[in-house]
Amino acid sequence: MSSILIVGGGFAGVWSAASAAKLRGERGLSEEDLRVTLISAGDDMVIRPRLYEASPDRMRVPLDRVLGPIGVRRLSGTVTGIDTGARTVTAVRRDGTTGEISYDRLVLASGSQVVRPALPGAEHLFDIDTMTGAATLEAHLHRLPERHGDGRFTAVVVGAGFTGLEIATELVGRLRDLAPAEQVRVVLVERQDEVGPELGPGPRPAIEKALAKLSVEVRLGVSVAEVTRDSVLLSDGTEIAAHTVVWTAGMTASPLTAFVPAPKDHLGRLDVDEYLRVRGVPDVYAAGDTAAALSPAEGRVVMQSCQHALPQGKFAGHNVAADLLDEDLVRFEPASYVTCLALGPAGAVVTSGWDREVQMTEHVAKDLKQTINQQWIYPPVDDPQALLRQAGPQAGWPEYRHPEAQ
Fold this sequence. Notes:
This protein is an alpha/beta fold.
């Protein structure tokens, strides 16, 4: 019996498992011939790109409903170490005991995490990086009407990147559901001199128009110096009364990449080859936010995003199984890069290519964003055959054209 171990229950991990199981089935092998195991700390696949929305508890899919019917074994545990020489993974089970799991091939798909700052009052910061973080923010927002004092319905969002823009614009509507519009204030803080600095100039006019429409205040060229329970002090000395401060600035790969003796980029992602094998480390693959994978057609290293995590998972899972079966591996080739940025009640903006040429804005773009959120990023839960059809390196994103964009 050969064994594949996948670490991580997010997009890349789930699709790695599904793709490995698909190839196993296509070759007529049993679950005992090629065991596919996924280990994760939680019981759900969290739909992380939707955690900026209200009711984040809805944004998850039970892993057992996805993996069990396709013959993938799931283990509950927190991985604490990886020994690539011994080909073992150490994990702490829920009962507190520690165990080792051996593998023949490993896929590290443990994701990424927000970089928490070391500043006075950091314990008062909220985030939407995890289900726990998003649920904590949700509960806090619903308690705001019980509070008193200035800034009760003021939210400061730190970081005007992709996540910061989505949560800042969404908070306008979420806070207006709790208080009259004239009492709601959202402030977006960015240390660089423009919003969406990593998104480039293409979508910026649409973003700035949306922020103005929603009356989101933008403070550029400043950072946060201190946070209290009901205020924020900026680096220029400005103090803002605010009972809600959401931190979105900075991402880094899962700390588990430190156990893999391979080069890493500035985000902590592992250097992988065209088949998503970790360079210089036998029998280890990486997918999703842990992998600095190159898109060969575009000549760019992909983003830490669900758009790239899904295909990386599909290619890695196929290749790790093909490797054990002595079959040819398939070179990673994702679909062309697009950006679909939600902008709350102001709609969305959709761009194509790495220069981010705007394709849709406002309600037309919002329709596409909702299609992605509600249909494309959820794996089929109750249809194992549909899940397997969507697995594998040949299964990409569906084509979409809005009637008004023809």
